[in-house]
Design goal:
4-stranded antiparallel beta sheet; elongated; 32% helix; 217 residues
């Protein structure tokens, strides 16, 4: 559903049809709407962050879970700060700990409970990249997914709207674009071109006695 906002963050008008980009007023978490490559475990006292919560909010619990994951099927395990310098929620891109015979942690690695654990299973990596997957492929995919989640947490989710400026009618609206307003603006421009083309065909068809010009049909 599109919620009319006072000002779009990007907009231009062509032949009475505006292509606009707004912040998504009702963004959904990509951890819910998308097939997850990573899994995020956290237990924070401020609010839920991640895919599952731990029973005990302490660094030792995170360390134990990391060891268990590594011993079983974890391809890649990492830790990240839960909060940015301004106190806002974020996951961030962790320093990955991968393919090590043992996982060694100390106070410098996990200094407080405001940490989250992120991991990828061998099963998921194999399903995405095949049996011969590389750790570089896994890290790149994990970092890309976490960047999308970061965008959601920071409010960088967008909706595009194509609007008839004369009647103020919404002709088309699509929400749920994460991270960057560039792609939804391109999609809005494309949708507007289709609408204007269809309007032109309709007008020329009416003027031509019911037959559209072949080069436009």
């Amino acid at each position: 559903m599109y919620c009319n906002q006072p000002e779009p963050i990007e907009a231009d008008t062509l032949f009475g049809v505006a292509a606009e980009v707004h912040y998504d007023p009702f963004p959904e978490s990509p951890r819910v709407t998308c097939d997850r490559f990573t899994h995020i475990a956290a237990d924070l006292d401020r609010y839920a962050l991640g895919d599952s919560m731990l029973e005990s909010r302490c660094a030792e619990t995170l360390i134990r879970l990391a060891r268990e994951l590594f011993a079983n099927d974890a391809v890649l395990v990492g830790f990240a700060d839960a909060w940015d310098s301004q106190g806002g929620a974020q996951i961030g891109v962790p320093t990955w700990l991968s393919f090590r015979p043992t996982l060694k942690h100390d106070a410098e690695t996990i200094e407080s409970a405001n940490k989250v654990l992120i991991h990828v299973t061998r099963e998921k990596a194999t399903a995405c990249f095949g049996q011969d997957f590389t750790i570089d492929q896994v890290i790149a995919a994990a970092e890309d997914e976490l960047a999308t989640y970061n965008a959601y947490l920071q409010g960088e989710v967008f909706t595009y709207v194509v609007r008839d400026t004369a009647r103020n009618d919404i002709l088309e609206s699509v929400c749920g674009f994460y991270r960057d307003a560039t792609y939804p603006k391109e999609e809005a421009d494309h949708a507007r071109r289709v609408i204007l083309r269809d309007r032109l065909i309709s007008t020329l068809t009416a003027l031509g006695g019911g037959q559209a010009p072949l080069e436009l049909a």
